Amino acid sequence: MAVWHIGLTEMTLRLLLALALGGLIGFERELGGHSAGFRTHILVCLGSAVIVLLSMYGFAAFATDPNVRLDPARLAAQVISGIGFLGAGTIMRTGPTVSGLTTAASLWVSAAIGLSAGAGFYYGAVISTILVVMSLFVLNKIEKLFSRSKTVRELLIKMEQSSSGVGYMLAHLNQCGLLINKLSVEVDEESAATGDRYLTIRLQVKLKKAQKYEEAIAKLIGMEGVVGLETASLAA
Fold it and tell me: Topologically, how does it sit relative to the membrane (predicted)?
């Protein structure tokens, strides 16, 4: 039956299309320095196309056998469920912060685009790629604008206990527009044992402008009594 056969030119076109579309999505991830980048997305998209081509045309020799019922969607369904393990490997959790979710989702949609290209659903594959690239490039900037007011940073400051800089430090943060959500002050036990008493100050601050935060940190480093400083981003 002709429906179970495909020409070499058509097959090559579908595989090249899958390679190009997967590369477009991977290019954005590569620019962002993510764990799954250009080559990974190409391989996922291309591999999905190969599998759906195999599912549709790889068993054409058995199409006329009355005891065989071909299902071109069977292997494709396994790709959609199986790609999850690769996406899970890109998700990282560091304390309260979770990263890699967008990359995992981009791998999943790359598999879907590869299946579409391999099945000859050209318009769906191309328009999906355009929408995905727009989402990653354009919506990423919009998301950052809306998330600025939700950004929470943690500060760990080590200061000399004898200094009078704690009050000055808090006043400085307020002047920079940083809202203090949480504050804790502890005496460093190790330093107390040696006779040099230091305070460990933990702060969670909410900021609206990253530039203001950078300016505040730069001034804190040079502040009298400050002997150590660490900062990290937290999930809002």
Answer: Multi-pass membrane protein
